[in-house]
Amino acid sequence: MLEISVICPKLLGMNTSSLMTVAFAVALLSSLVIKYWLLTRQNKHVSVHRANVPSAFEGIIALAEHQKAADYTLAKSRVALWDLALETCLLLVWTLLGGLNALNQFLLTLLAPGLWQEVSLILCFVVIGALINLPMSWYQTFVVESQFGFNNSTLKLWLTDMLKASLLGAIIGIPLLSVILWVMQSGGMYWWVWAWCILVGFQLLMIWIAPNYLMPLFNKFTPLEDAALIERISQLMDRSGFKAKGFFVMDGSKRSAHSNAFFTGIGSSKRVVFFDTLLKQLSADEMEAVLAHELGHFKHKHIVKMMVINFVTTLLGFAALGWIMQQTWFYTGLGVMPNLGLGEASSNNALALLLFTMVVPLVSFLSAPISSARSRAQEFEADAYAVQQASAHALKSALVKLYQDNASTLTPDPWFVRFYYSHPPASERLSRMGV
Questions:
Q1: Beta carbons of 90 and 129 less than 8 angstroms apart
Q2: Dihedral of the CA atoms 187, 192, 194, 198 (nearest 10)?
Q3: Which of its termini does the chain have fewer beta carbons within 10 Å around, N or C?
Q4: HSE (CB half, 13 Å, CA atoms) of 39?
Q5: Could you give the CA distance from residue 427 to residue 57 in angstroms, rounded to a whole number?
Q6: The dihedral of CA 284, 290, 294, 295: what is its sign?
Q7: pTM here?
Q8: Which pLDDT tens digit goes with each residue over 103-121?
Q9: Over the stretch 324-377, which tens digit does the pLDDT of each residue have?
């Protein structure tokens, strides 16, 4: 009681800006502790179970494969710990240590206050962050992935991909960013509604044009040539009431040995895409079962539900931003001096947008178990649909092969699963299928 009586007056005596600083520091520390705790739990759990294949997979997965998956998981966790440390340091530098404020003040000495200064601020922020994270990305690709035989990319291809992605991001992102900032400045009290409409329209447009115009910039897509497989999956899709523009094979092996299959596009642009690595690994029965699982997502409208949740969340986020960007304490509490007294052309829109995107993840991280649980439930529903439309044994054997080929650990920590796993662990998934 004595501690509370001493602390409360101190908190009450703080101004709103100081309270914002304290709240941010507490949220950052809490997020760091929880993430570190989860990663260390995962590492310990995987290490403890490394020596033995789980009983459900005895005779199916060799001990060497199980240990490779464990070692791969541990290697990725070590990178994740370094990422966590770097992410935390960067966040502190940008906010409480004055990095974002210094960058903003520097740009104000070069550019007049207004839209282009704000666009430049966000672009500089993004470029600096990308450059700082570049070594870690290189290490993940050319050390970790190469060590376990997954990386097929060359340094030239990696650099080319990065250049293409950067140019494409600039061509698409700068106009969108400019429009959003202009709406924030000129859209009145309810600018956030108009900004949300623009963003939703943009996202739907990207879903429509990506399969035909954007994805081919990075990968080669060729029509599936296996006539027997085409006939088989066409019949499956007819039974499911699903129409697609075509079946394509993507040269995923150009960059990685990992395999996958997915639907992409919207409306008449929907297409089925198989990694070339997947076609080499699975039989016709297994391919049909995997595709049936993907069709289950569409049958249960998981994609539509996910999009609706995303759109609603984005709207609420814009509404919150619309209010908080008017509060001076939001800026000063995070180490930023608002653009005050610089004329009518000046605004805090870019500062507000950047600070908001840095702060929100610290709070939304706590909702991760909810979204992960929802995603895992949808995977169970898609599996159940696949068992109805195809062979349960084929789906099981396909999943086991995918777990093997992608070196996915069979013994993840339960708490780590609750926070991070969008797909159920292998043992739960196969047990639910009853095979």
A1: yes
A2: 120
A3: N
A4: 18
A5: 8
A6: positive
A7: 0.86
A8: 999 999 999 888 999 999 9
A9: 998 889 999 999 987 655 544 446 899 999 999 999 999 888 889 999 999 999
